[in-house]
Amino acid sequence: MSKRHQHSQSAAIKSSEITAESSYLNRRKLVQGLGLGLGLRAGIAASASLLSGALQADIAPSNMMSPDEEITPEKIATSYNNFYEFGTGKEDPAEYAHEMSIAPWQVEVSGEVEKQGVFDYTELLQGLTVEERIYRLRCVEAWSMVIPWQGVPLAALLQRLQPTSAAKYVHFTTLHRPKEMRGQRSFFSGIDWPYVEGLRLDEAMHPLTLMATGMYGKSLPNQNGAPWRLVVPWKYGFKSIKSIVKIHFSKREPKTTWNQLAPSEYGFYANVNPDVSHPRWSQASERRLPGSLFGSNRIPTLPFNGYGEQVAGLYAGMNLKRHY
Ligand code: MTE
């Protein structure tokens, strides 16, 4: 998101650049992998209850992709990452995120909520149904992927915490542990750690919003935000905060990391919007990863990243050019 990630967006979009072949994930394989992946993760977290819960879980499919969009190869989704806690290079997270210890993983719940306290994240997940969601991920830097996530609807998790009637926003905070996160020791990122993100409560409760615990049928790799991270598919990727250790409910809009760093470039809402350019590049199209030998796979960007039918109602009456 710094200057060096700027992309020129002037090239016209040829229809031949849009992926034509349909590709579906082998569901049975994925479901088998899911059991295995969560099982391994539960083993690390030493939580037998999560393990049995995950294996018995109903895996509700929720695939809203159009048939001509291919799932991004797992190798790419787990090696081309943004996780500035481990460095600003795309390869840094895959190289260094193993230095982060994720067991045990404690989460603090606070603010306008009944169930306050510090919990092991497995305790908060216990009994919730793990679902599969294949979503587009559109980074504000104008690249995108299609990723099969496993996780729980955020609404199910938040409901069991019982927000009070005063709660209007929910804030999320990433782990702050400079000893294990080399990007937090570096002066180059310019970020005031820890990384903080937030949603309006109705956005957080929307059925598309996911708290992911896995991808590609395996537990979430550290570089993708282990052991759990947000996935908000209609917003730019920076809203999908990784490795969450705090959930805080409030009356007021939170101050979020990228918005504070560059308010004219990154808004609080950050809904994917081809009509609102970033000050330094257009958002009208995106590079769908991977590219090929013949060039980048450039496709048009869709309003709300293609999820407008489901989410546009959340913003009825709002000027989305002002609330970018
Ligand atoms: N969360 C934290 N804590 N730190 C980060 O630097 N980067 C964000 C988001 N979540 C980021 C983060 C950005 S800009 C994007 S595009 C996505 O993570 C990338 O997710 P991925 O690496 O799993 O594709």
- Low-confidence spans: pLDDT under 50, at least 5 residues? 3-62
For the record, the CATH class is Alpha Beta
Largest sheet, in brief, is: 8 strands, mixed
Q: Tally the helices.
A: 10
What are the bound molecules?
ligand MTE
The backbone outline, from C-alpha atoms, is globular
Please compute the radius of gyration using only Cα atoms: 19 Å
Instruction: Bin the strand percentage.
Output: 15-25%
Question: Any idea what the CATH superfamily is called?
Answer: Oxidoreductase, molybdopterin-binding domain
Structural classification: alpha+beta
Q: Kindly state the mean pLDDT as a whole number? A: 85
Total beta strands: 13
The percent of residues in helical segments reads: 10-25%
Number of domains: 1
| CATH architectural type | Alpha-Beta Complex
Instruction: Return the string of H and E elements.
Output: HHEHHEEHEEHEHEHEEEEHEEH
According to CATH, the fold-level topology is Sulfite Oxidase, Chain A, domain 2
Distance between the termini: 16 Å
Task: Throw out a few tags for this protein.
disordered N terminus; eight-stranded mixed β-sheet; alpha+beta; 10 helices; 324 residues; 13 strands
